[in-house]
Amino acid sequence: MSAVPDGKKLVRSPSGLRMVPENGAFSSPFYFDEPQWVPDKECPRCMQCDTKFDFLTRKHHCRRCGKCFCDKCCSKKVPLPRMCFVDPVRQCAECGLLSQKEMEFYDKQLKLLLNGGSFLVTQGNSEKSEAMMCRLSNNHRYLFMVGVSHLQVELARISSVQILTDGFAPGEKDIHTYTSLLESQYISEGGNSRPSGMLLQYKLPASQDIQELRLTAHEERKVAASWLAAMHKAAKLLYESRDQ
Asked: Which residues form a coiled coil (predicted)?
């Protein structure tokens, strides 16, 4: 283990080299830990094709799910940024597909979120809005909103996200996607209308009171729409990862 700049360290695990935060408390909310490997003695056969392991048919562990497979069922090495691996790692077919889909988020949507977008921000039931630049923090843990005033929302404290679209009056039809990050709610996705805003509900630290923010695309609406679409992807990724 060796320390490197910007608060990260290089760690060698049984699965490969990983670049992780020096302080685990500052891990990205998109990150998840390496799984416990299924013990060799508990998997005499491939957990996909049921081929019996022997001297010629060796067993391999998927780095994402930890299950045991033969080389045929676990031969591909795929990038796995959600576990902070430096190089692509061996994964089973199912996990490899998940990781490949997530790479699009890391290559495209995450960069959009870090760059930010311009919005009119309304707090609660206030009739006043403020022009603010909204972006994801570098460690992915907070949404920063900066204008004359400053706001920040921790992603882990978000209870729901609603992405609003153009073309409908307020109401049920304006929900392009609904994702609950804390409670066990469903996800519903609408059509292909351009995102125009977002409703956030979140809980303040050490409080169960629900706060609400409304963001409406302001200047550079195309950039704001792309940012909102990326936020949709991020919220869905966080929701689905709870059960992984």
From this structure: none
pTM of the predicted model as reported, rounded to 2 decimal places: 0.79
Q: Quote the tokens at residue 108.
A: 């495209």
Contact (Cβ atoms closer than 8 angstroms) between residue 176 and residue 164 = yes
| pLDDT for the residue 183 | 53
Judge residue 63's burial from the number of C-beta atoms within 10 Å of its C-beta, 0-12 exposed, 13-18 middle, 19 or more buried.
buried
Q: Which secondary structure element, helix H or strand E, spans residue 171, and what is its range?
A: none
Closest by CA position to 153, among listed 218, 224, 205: 205
Strand partners, 122: 129, 214
Strand partners, 198: 163, 215
Q: Which amino acid is at 168?
A: F
- Beta carbons of 202 and 157 less than 8 angstroms apart: yes
Mean pLDDT in residue range 123-137: 92
Q: How far apart are CA 121 and CA 164, in angstroms?
A: 14
Residue-level pLDDT at 172: 45
* b/e burial code for range 163-200 (CB count within 10 A of at least 16 → b): bbbeeeeeeeebbbbbbbbbeeeeeeebeebbbbbbbb
Backbone angles phi, psi at 129, to 5 degrees: -120, 155
Evaluate if residue 175 carries a pLDDT over 80.
no
pLDDT value for 5: 42
**Does residue 169 register a pLDDT over 50?**
no
Cα of first residue to Cα of last residue in the chain, in angstroms, is 27
Supply 39's token pair: 């013990």
Q: Are 138 and 111 in contact (CB under 8 A)?
A: no
